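Reading a protein record of the kind used here takes little practice once its layout is understood. The reader may check this reading against the record printed directly beneath this paragraph.
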Amino acid sequence: MSINFNEICISAKTASREFSLLDAKQRNQILLRIASRVLESKNEILDANKIDYDNAKESGADDHILDRLYLNEERIDAIVDGVYQVVELEDPLDIEYDTTVRPNGLNVSKRSVPLGVIGAIYESRPNVTLDIVALCVKSGNVSILKGGSDTLSTNNAIVSSIHKAFGDLKLNPDIVQFINSSDRKYVDSMLNAIDYIDLIIPRGGAQLVNMVREKSRVPAITGGIGVCHIYVDETADKNKAIEIIYNSKVQRPSVCNALDTVIFNENINKDIIISAVKKLLESKVEVRVDTQCFDILSSLKEDYPNSICLASDDDWGQEFLSLILSIRITDSIENAINYINQYGGHSEAIISENPDNTTQFLKAIDSSAVFVNASTRFNDGGELGLGAEVAISTSKIHARGPMGIKDLTSYKWIIIGEGQIRN
């Protein structure tokens, strides 16, 4: 299929100007109609997804890729529920703040506005298509979507239902642009479209994110990958520790906020370590541990001889995205913090009943989200009240953590006068 990328960009820019004139009620109407159309098209989307899933499985895709790619009725319902949550969010546009009156009588303020055109490049995640569209529509932004070749059929089906919704409302479908091609040249085109795209958001693995960081001439959010840690100190509650570690690792191991490394304080009750690891082993988690932890787990080796092994240097600082976990022992919270700040940046948690330790951890850890006695899996736009997310940013500029509608806005200065001129 021939695609004129320049026409896509021009159409997106034109649609952006038209879209900026719609009010909050109209944008919510679009979202509600999109949700309805996606539900009506559920069978078509599932049929398309089966094609993508079977092709990926046949080509030998890893389990975490297959899990991210896979859709069923429950997952589609959950994605659509995210759209409804976005509808309920407060409108992020036309909010005036930092209002002042200058000595010469000028009324000065800032007003929130859309960024304009958002370019999204993503892999193996058809849910991202609807998440990004919902957040862009709510925040008044036009989107240009470039999904991976492994989800082309699914994304095409989802976007088709979205365009039907725009048709129902007699609105310009160019508000959502989809590059219906697996050709990687369009990624390069997006990264160089400085006259048309205002922000690039990559969603995928380290290879994609690092490529965007190195090549993009368009401003880009280049976080979203990272090793997630839990530190368990000597005061940790046993039940909390076991359940939080288990949930963080096993609930959905293929996603970016799943646990990668646990650090236990050496003074902890060793039964907590053994019980936590046993529960993981029962769910077929492979643990790679330092020598001190290897000795502590000696009682489990007979029953799980192939699931406990000594970690290699490469296992530290590794984002596993699967049922693999590294475990190490430390002698102090300070050393745990130093280790996490060396390898982390995404989602980190402390399990502790010591308020001094939790306060120190919260202040010292330099990551996009830091938790006390809670699973790292909560670093998610929907779970943190954003409805959905366009990405989880580990950058410090513009946005950090789950990016919702407010992170897709900028502002402009508004100056109201009564004839003032500058001397």
User: Anything to note?
Assistant: The mean pLDDT is 94. The longest helix spans residues 24-40.
